[in-house]
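In the previous lecture we treated proteins in isolation. Real proteins rarely work alone, and many bind small molecules. This record shows how such a complex is specified: first the sequence, then the SMILES for glutathione.
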Amino acid sequence: MIELFTANTPNGKKISIMLEEIKYEYKVVNIDINKGDQFKENFIKISPLSKIPVIIDHERNQTIFESGAILIYLAEQSGKFYDVEERLEINQWLMAQMGYFGPMLGQHHQFHHYNPGKSKFGEDRYFKISERIYRELNERLSKSKYLAGKNYTIADIATFPWIARHEWHDIGLKKFKNLTRWYEEISERDGVKRGFAFMDENELPPKP
Ligand SMILES: N[C@@H](CCC(=O)N[C@@H](CS)C(=O)NCC(=O)O)C(=O)O
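The predicted 3D structure, ligand included, written as tokens:
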């Protein structure tokens, strides 16, 4: 059994979606990051950077933090969404999500959604970067069905919950035809729907 320490955020949803996709049994432990649960001593023991998500795989007595590392672990364990022959391509798109799409869109959330009016520089900078990410993903998806090629992989699972915050981004997902095609298709997957609703049974990926 997997114990998933998490919150209802894009990084959290990457792992609930993956666990639903591979049909693993798991139990959710809610970490309230707004109240500071991530800084509690017991949590830091399993999450040295005080961040969700973290999993404990009780069968293998293994604790893993960092969502990209968790996705790779679950993909290797299950043999799904991380084909050996496609691994180099998958790794590149997964790392791009971890080091670029997620952190930049996360800053856009901070300036544009949570704290508008506090910093024009921050708002403009991350709006432009987010728009650029939409353009770049749209371009990639004009040549490739999924991010890493013809198959749905953990690179898509990592990126999807971030694009699912498109209403916060205010960029206009629909203007990006290929990204919208990819987004709509992934939104319809049963595992994605279940993983999206892991903390709120009525939550669905928002329509483009
Ligand atoms: N690179 C990390 C980022 C995780 C992350 O930023 N988690 C946020 C919530 S989405 C968090 O736990 N923030 C609490 C904090 O940093 O105090 C990953 O992908 O796992």
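Summary for your notes: The chain has two domains: 2-81, 84-189. The CA atoms of residues 2 and 134 lie 33 Å apart.
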